[in-house]
Specification:
The protein is an alpha/beta fold and 366 residues long. Helix content is 49%, strand content 8%. The strands form 3 sheets. The protein has a 4-stranded parallel sheet with strand order 2-1-6-7, with helices on both faces. A 3-stranded mixed sheet has the order 3-5-4. A hairpin with a 7-residue loop joins strand 4 (108-109) and strand 5 (117-120). It is globular.
Length: 366
């Protein structure tokens, strides 16, 4: 009985596969059909995919740690699928794109920040996945991580004026001396005399949120520029823009569905998509035990206090309007990522009185 049922299913699968071959109008080589009726690659297709450039782009606070844990799993599958063939691994660009370098320039690395890897603009034909995040949420997340001293060692360092110091903190130093931070009454920041964490931890919450938003400005500008210049994005383009919230909202199954979208855009052989997405999810998603433990090596801010996070989002939106010229608000429709569940305020959002809120009065907004 069992063998008869198996034979019937196998016959159905082979028939379906043969029909699909005819529908596609192309003869297949000796790879044959899989029992589920799905196609494998032809030899030519596999060779072309293996050699195709692939790039994952994140920015500070948009899933860099998650992507750094996922890429070894994804690239191991490329090794397996492309065994014996010349293969292009998925490259990483964890701090956006360096638009000054010519296309094809090798990615740059930085000793101060282990994940400070930045690629040049991807060449035409590169398969690209770009992880994005709501600009206000990104800034609030950066503030809380910085304040808890949970970022890499650079934030505890003082350093003489240099290109690298200027790149990381120069905008805060300049703004606090003669820009919007100075206009708001924040003290001047001199990164050769005090570290970023020393400066930030001495500020009340309103001032700290603003200072970190200015600190994040270059990263957010880069995120917007990638969106506007590296498209088109969407089905059939080989380029996927995906929100960080798609990985962190909901259950493990939701995170796995987000990874399935990534795996498909990177063009993995169809028969590997489901199992590969599951392995990546279990390795990198915070809903999975292994992913949660791995990210603890970087440090995690307690997001269980949703009220505080959502209040900070509301507060920074108001500060952006009052002091920052609405820069975050202007970016938001371009990025097109809603707030995640961890940061979304209730409706109406009611600000709670706090001695730390010094730049704006306590208000209620719809």
């Amino acid at each position: 009985m069992y063998w008869m049922e198996f034979a019937s299913r196998l016959s159905h699968a082979v028939t379906l596969c043969a029909w699909l071959m005819l529908a596609r109008g192309s003869a297949r080589s000796h790879w044959c059909c899989k029992a589920d009726g799905s196609f494998a690659f032809t030899s030519a297709e596999l060779r072309a995919w293996c050699s195709q450039p692939k790039l994952a782009i994140t920015h500070h606070k948009t899933g860099t740690e998650m992507m750094s844990m996922a890429l070894p799993v994804l690239n191991a599958q490329i090794d397996t699928s492309c065994h014996g063939l010349a293969a292009e691994k998925i490259g990483a660009s964890f701090v956006g794109i360096d638009f000054e370098k010519p296309v094809g320039t090798p990615a740059s690395h930085d000793k101060l920040k282990p994940l400070y890897v930045q690629a040049a603009r991807p060449a035409a034909g590169t398969l690209v996945v770009h992880v994005r995040r709501h600009p206000v949420e990104t800034s609030v997340s950066s503030y809380n991580y910085d304040l808890e001293n949970q970022e890499w060692g650079w934030q505890n360092m003082t350093c003489p004026p240099s290109d690298k110091c200027d790149e990381i903190l120069g905008n805060v130093a300049n703004s606090s001396q003669s820009g919007v931070l100075a206009s708001a009454g924040l003290p001047a920041f001199n990164f050769s005399a005090e570290s970023w964490i020393e400066y930030l931890s001495a500020l009340p919450e309103d001032e700290g949120l603003m200072a970190d938003a200015v600190h994040m400005q270059k990263s957010l500008d880069n995120m917007v520029k990638v969106i506007l210049t590296q498209g088109p994005w969407g089905p059939g383009t080989g380029r996927l823009g995906i929100c960080e919230r798609d990985f962190v909202n909901g259950e493990l199954e939701d995170c796995e569905m987000a990874w399935r979208r990534v795996v498909k855009v990177f063009g993995f052989p169809p028969a590997t998509v489901s199992s590969l997405a599951a392995r990546v999810a279990n390795t990198s998603c915070t809903q999975a035990e292994a992913g949660q433990k791995a990210q603890e090596t970087h440090g995690t801010v307690d997001h269980a206090n949703k009220t505080k996070a959502s209040d900070q989002v509301v507060r920074l939106k108001q500060l952006d309007h009052a002091y920052l010229g609405g820069q975050l608000a202007k970016m938001t429709p371009v990025v097109a990522c809603p707030l995640s569940e961890r940061y979304a305020p209730p409706t109406p959002a009611v600000m709670r009185t706090s001695h730390a809120n010094t730049l704006l009065p306590t208000t209620e907004i719809a």
